[in-house]
Amino acid sequence: MTDDSASRTENDKPERDPFAIDTSVAHPARIQNYLAGGDGHFAADRSAVDDFGSVLPGGIKDARASVRSLASFMARTVNYLTVELGLRQFLNIGATVPTVKKVHEVAHQIAPDSRFVYVGDDPVVLAHAHKLRASVYDGATEYVHATIRDTELILKQSAPPLDLDQPVAVLLLTTLNFVPDDDEPYQLLADLLAGLASGSCVVIAHSSFDFNAKGMREASAKLREALQQAWVVRPYDEIVRFFDGLDMVEPGLVPIDDWHPTDNAPLPHSARPVPIFGGIGRKV
């Protein structure tokens, strides 16, 4: 009689549970939560921030300034999409662990009938997503466990609550920084937009070395090592390519602090620029 366990092949081994939380490796969603002052993070995330913050001239304060500017950019773009363009459907790909201000709350303050789908691949984000679903009416907020590489799955599972025959705003806030060229990020975005109606928009925020922000190259190398995944920093010319075939909303692709600034925008704590470009493109 043979021992079945001894003859088991590598292919018979159980696959890693995609919903298991690996607290030993930092995750972008939790790092951003930590920098934003949230509580959805672990020691590995805090250690990663301490490590890459050590090479920035202002330490962790520089990283926190970027996160504050990114949150302000998100709020201003969502406000523009709802007020100026009349959009009521949002697809936030690369969702982070939420802090005080959730993305859908920005839209709901202006248009309570707005509908949201959050897309992320961190189990901690998934856990918070259950609270989000319970916090709004009529299933107006849902969650898809995926990454931007899963365009077909995202489109399939987003409807409902989204009506893909009507315009949708896609939010990619540093999401494309985590997609290397080998994964064809331009094609992924084109595939995603191909499944959306005319009038849909994409909001992109993407880090860049073009700002010559002191310490950024060293910090990026440390972040990439801590995350154990791709972290791609692109120049302006490569970022603006994501908007090929789309109508750019004025003022185009600019530093995020310069995109429709308001009087209540966060004040920089130093002269170091926030090294992120941002803009909105509209499908015609």
Structure notes:
With 284 residues, the chain is α/β, with parallel strands linked by helices. The chain has a single domain, classed as Rossmann fold (3-Layer(aba) Sandwich), CATH 3.40.50.150. It is 35% helix and 14% strand. It has nine helices and eight strands. The protein has helices spanning 28-35, 43-53, 60-83, 103-110, 123-135, 151-158, 185-194, 216-227, 236-240; strands at residues 89-93, 115-120, 141-145, 169-173, 201-207, 247-248, 254-255, 276-282. Strands 1, 2, 3, 4, 5, 6, 7 and 8 form an eight-stranded mixed sheet that branches. Strand 2 (115-120), helix 5 (123-135) and strand 3 form a beta-alpha-beta unit. Helix 1 packs across helix 2 and helix 3 (60-83) runs parallel beside helix 4. Residues 1-14 have low confidence and may be disordered.
What helical percentage do the residues reach? 25-40%
- The CATH architecture can be named as 3-Layer(aba) Sandwich
Low-confidence stretches: 1-14
CATH topology: Rossmann fold
Q: Categorize the overall geometry.
A: globular
Radius of gyration: 19 Å
Task: Please name the fourth-level CATH homologous superfamily.
Answer: Vaccinia Virus protein VP39
Largest sheet: 8 strands, mixed
Gap between N and C termini: 68 Å
Strand content: 5-15%
Question: If you average the pLDDT, what whole number results?
Answer: 82
- CATH secondary-structure class: Alpha Beta
Order of helices and strands: HHHEHEHEHEHEHHEEE
Tally of discrete structural domains: 1
Question: How large is the count of helical segments?
Answer: 9
Q: How many strands appear in the DSSP assignment?
A: 8
